[in-house]
Amino acid sequence: MTFTAHIGAGVIGAYLIDALIFHRPMTPETMGVAIGLSLLPDLDSVYVLTATKNWQFKDRNRHHRFFSHTPLFFLSLALLLTPFLNLRALTLFIGLTLLHLVLDSWATDDGIMWLWPFRERQYALVPIQERGPELFGMTYYRQRYFRQWYVALAELLLLLGGLLVGVQVVG
Ligand SMILES: [Zn+2]
After folding, report:
1. Which residues surround ligand 1, an ion (CB under 5 A)?
2. How far apart are CA 102 and CA 71, in angstroms?
């Protein structure tokens, strides 16, 4: 997924958590938190791209193979945060970081390590065409990723859904 789809999904996810579990309307502050949490797992890109000297995307961004892109990492982090967060904040943290990981497993050619540290295999729910030797970064997205209609449709729906929630919350 692209970062815009991650943001859209995070905003929709937070809206649904508030509406269905905590029976309260979403606030602009929650929307800001949702955007941050929806992108939080990708912070490891900064480390991985620096460590692999891959800022120009001459190779695949290998952060999906990093321990910080696993459910166990975020569940452990949630456990450490438990004394400092209320139930709603904890639910948003777990819900939105795991939603990010689900989206990283959807329509991807690598997926994430759902069973780490027991297995290092990466699982993809809807595997798509693999990146080729010359196909990384934006070239891959232009020539492969968006050419698959179900991927492009999901991206569009998440972006529009996030915008719709955003307009309702801020407007
Ligand atoms: Zn990610």
Report:
1. 41-42, 104
2. 10
